[in-house]
Amino acid sequence: MSHTENQGAKFLADVHFYYDKAAAFTNLSDGLLEQIKTANSIYEMHFPVKNGDKIEVIQGIRVQHSHHKLPAKGGIRFADTVDIEEVKALATLMTFKCAVVDVPFGGAKGGVCINPRNYSVEMLEKITRRYTTELIKKNLIGPGIDVPAPDYGTSGREMAWIADTYAAFKYEETDALACVTGKPLGQGGIQGRTEATGLGIYYGLRETLNHAELISGTGLSLGMEGKRIVLQGLGNVGYHAGYFCQKEGKAKIVGIAEMEGGIYNPNGLDIDEVFAFRKKTGSILNFPGAENFSNSAAVLELDCDILIPAALENQIHAGNASNIKAKVIGEGANGPCTKEAEEILQLKGVIIVPDLYLNAGGVTVSYFEWLKNLSHVRFGRMEKRLEELNFRRMTETIERLTGKSIDAKDKKLLIHGAEEKDLVYSGLEETMVNAFHEITAIKLGNKNIPDLRTAAFISAITKIAASYTTMGVWP
Fold first, then answer.
1. Fewer CB atoms near the end CB (10 Å): N or C, the chain?
2. pTM of this prediction?
3. Is residue 292 part of a domain?
């Protein structure tokens, strides 16, 4: 077994460990608990693709973990570390993630074992379309069957190729665009999807830091303002998590870790400036005013209040957990903390806001995109002008009755009708806030429940079990 396979198996074992730990707090039958735990369908494929004058055989995987609700839902990652155990672990997490935030999907995940940096855009398109064709042949993709999304190594570009390939095969389906989410706006995407996961992380951390009982043992004051954040990953998720924590939450980002190394400035780093600097130079290193770290893992151990690992799994482990100084860890990535690390961190009183809740913003807004594609209408199209008309009438009535004029800037804000992005942000915030309070109610309602992760799993297991019971599969 290779190093990456070991990592995937370790990741899956950790997910099952967390599941079993939470399942022990339920009174569900062993058979039902086994059904909820087990992956329903696993498909591994190998297909040839011509690259120049040679033929490459590419490995692809799709795992549908749960069919308790359809369609199944989960991203597709392009990485040379992809293996079946890792994809099973990610698909399993997706099942519980969807349940925690009340998104009516079963969990799934896919992967193509390539390093996308080693291929041209033309080759990536060829590989993506061929992978999609393999899924279509086995009826493993479709608006009511299985709906992929972007993940590590993929983006809206690949999702557009998938949607186009599916539509070519299923030309009679009027809902064909709903076969995949995370698409560009011009191909049926939704406003707010790009920043959704990062924005969801902000909402989740904001609720955590405003919960007096939850953070009472950390020594932190209430609220996000002024809190020092170390961020691992400056990709889509990490950037937007940092952006909203800094711009909306008034937090201070003091450290950033990326593949090439890390930077630190105790006085704070402007995330937009760092992002622009990296885009220009290809690296965050040598950012003006910041201290360089050649070993990016060392940045995770810097003094801070909040650590947001938003890269890959197994980043905080038994070897470095005791050196972590953060009081709160927000799991922006899937599985960034191993179970051994979690045990060490809990003994230190660190609050871990778990991945199956905290990074569910992406699948939440994917759900909104799926609904948009099925309804064939942009959110806000029907009501925006009517809302503005009513708000204008109300403000003008107030001005007439009071004899006073409202400032033009304030008036513009008051009469603004909800656009698609406003509705997406509102729906995402509602989802994250409600899920947070469900999880904390479970955690604080039973003193034997040790952490938020266990509480989140209990919440998910209970909801999934209710679905099976409603089906009549279990009494």
1. C
2. 0.91
3. yes
> Using omega within 30 degrees of 0 as the cis cutoff, is the peptide bond preceding 71 cis?
yes
Which residues constitute the domain of residue 79? 3-11+37-187
The predicted-structure confidence for 67-105, as pLDDT tens digits, reads as follows 999 999 999 999 999 999 999 999 999 999 999 999 999
Look at strands 261-264 and 291-293 and give their pairing. antiparallel
Q: Which of 10, 88, 109, 372 is catalytic?
A: 109
- For residues 177 and 308, membership in a common domain is answered with no
Domains identified in the chain, total number? 2
Closest CA to 366 of 161, 177, 203: 177
Residue whose tokens read 């909800």: 418
Q: Contact 103/72 with Cβ under 8 angstroms?
A: no
Low-confidence ranges of the chain (pLDDT < 70): 1-5, 471-475
Structure tokens at 352: 């871990």
In a domain, 438, yes or no: no
Shared domain check, 350 and 204: yes
Q: Please confirm, yes or no, whether 69 is among the known catalytic residues.
A: no
- Considering the domain architecture, whether residues 332 and 240 belong to the same structural domain is answered as yes
Question: Is 129 domain-assigned?
Answer: yes
- For the beta sheet containing 306-309, the strands, ordered from the edge strand earlier in sequence to the opposite edge, are 291-293, 261-264, 252-258, 228-232, 306-309, 328-330, 351-353
- Phi first, then psi: what are they for 125, rounded to 5°? -65, -40
Reported residue count of the chain is 475
Q: Which residues contact 140 (CB under 8 A, 6 or more apart)?
A: 41, 43, 62, 64, 146
Q: Do residues 452 and 440 lie in contact, with contact meaning Cβ atoms separated by under 8 Å?
A: yes
Closest CA to 342 of 104, 18, 13: 18
Q: What is the mean pLDDT of the chain?
A: 92
pLDDT, position 475: 54
Cα-to-chain-centroid distance, residue 457: 16
Q: Residue 33: CB partners within 8 Å, gap ≥ 6?
A: 23, 26, 461
Domain containing 266 — which CATH number? Answer: 3.40.50.720
122-135 tens-digit pLDDT: 999 999 999 999 99
Q: Where are the beta strands (DSSP E) in 179-325?
A: 228-232, 252-258, 261-264, 291-293, 306-309
Per DSSP, the residues of 277-305 read: HHHHHS-STT-TT-EEESSGGGGGGSS-S
